[in-house]
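We now fix the convention by which a protein and its fold are recorded. Here is one such record, which you should read through line by line:

>
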Amino acid sequence: MKLVRYGRPGKEKPGLIDEFGRLRSLAGVVDDITPAQLSAAALKKLAKIDPASLPLVRGEPRFGVPLRGVGKFIAIGLNYADHAEEAGMAIPPEPIVFSKAITCLSGPDDAIVLPPGAKKTDWEVELGVVIGKRAQYVDQAEALDYVAGYVVVNDVSERAWQLQSSQWDKGKGCDSFGPVGPWLVTRDEIVDVQDLDMYLEVNGKRMQTGSTATMIFGVAQLVSYLSRYMTLEPGDIIATGTPPGVGMGRTPPRFLKNGDTVRLGIPGLGEQQQVVQSHPLKGSRA
């Protein structure tokens, strides 16, 4: 299934995408797409519904984050060998873990807003993993059983702040720096999560082309690893790293500016498009 939430910010309604790519309303079936809807039993119940029996949603409504009630937004740094190379950093011996603030979450097509004083705002297309059941000390062989589905994530980053110290959170958690969606695609629709293509364009120019096949630490390994150090709860999102082609790694570096358009996606998981806007407060970069 492809689960979505659509409508004005704070007023989103639940829906799904049918086999023809049409949006259908789930408002008469569930109140919202929440962590409670990610259990195996709840997803199985939704899967039994004939999409043709659900009302079509006309027009082109805004898509929001496809899950309400995200508990943790965890991210992995330098998880692609070729990205580590372009960043001039060694391949990590174990996953580099940091957090993105929940308040940075935004819809897949909402604007990226440059914070006041931002100078080096960058892009990162990533596969997001959505946890479906409580995971604690999980074996790698069983780790995917704890995954409800997958999403596209743009791990927007202000490099000037990220690299001021060894802690990356400051440059990763600004408002609008976590576009997620458009869909939450359930795990059963993905044949091999380690064989997904990824791409990102800025103003129509291809910047990132990659595949989850070149991850250093795969999805199952990441879920198992993280579950040793924190309990993963339904609705937690793990952004699993980005392939090469970020702005910081280009010669010369290329960062986002007011008016840029970013388009990114993962076939099967959907596509995002964001327009970059300066923050209205004084000090934003035009």
Summary: The chain has two domains: 2-53, 73-278. The mean pLDDT is 95. The CA atoms of residues 171 and 285 lie 16 Å apart.
